[in-house]
Amino acid sequence: MKAIRFIGVSLLAVFLVLSCSEEMGEKEYFDLANQYMGQQNWEKAEQNFEIIYQKFPNGVFSSKALFMMGYLNANHLNNLEKARKYYTEFLEKYPNHELADDAKYELENLGKDVEDLPFLKGDEEASPESTSNSEGKVVSAKK
């Protein structure tokens, strides 16, 4: 009887160890989210970034996961309300992060058409036949 109980307890212990070891870590979720991004599966990417942020709140990838949830919602999932929420939360929680300026920029330009973005306006005005004068104004090279 003791032998049967010992075998049962041993099998239970092995089962628990195996089931725990199969659970993915923060890095695996982050890699998986990036794989989904490479496949343009934005929903699955967001889900994996969300898992990182919820399951590993103080982890190495938590801040980037939060930023990426904002990015995906702003640029691919067209959910500007969620994007604003994530970017705002990111800036509140990580004001000195290397991506803080990017989050601020994204918030300032949330919902704007690509043609309205400041960094593109200068490129559109310049053409192969135009150049900038000493004041930085675009002037035509044609006469």
Order of helices and strands: HHHHHHHEE
Strand content: under 5%
Please state how the strands of the largest beta sheet are arranged side by side.
1-2
How many helices in DSSP terms? 7
Biggest sheet: strands, sense, closure?
2 strands, antiparallel
Span between N and C termini?
103 Å
Helix content: 55-70%
Q: Helices and strands: which structural class?
A: mainly alpha
State the shape: globular
Walk me through the structure.
With 143 residues, the protein is mainly α. Helices cover 64% and strands 4% of the residues. It has seven helices and two strands. The chain has helices at 2-21, 26-38, 42-55, 62-75, 80-93, 100-108, 118-125, and strands spanning 130-132, 138-140. The chain has a two-stranded antiparallel sheet with strand order 1-2. α2 (26-38) packs antiparallel against α3, α3 (42-55) packs antiparallel against α4 (62-75) and α5 (80-93) runs antiparallel to α6 (100-108). It is globular. The N and C termini lie far apart (103 Å).
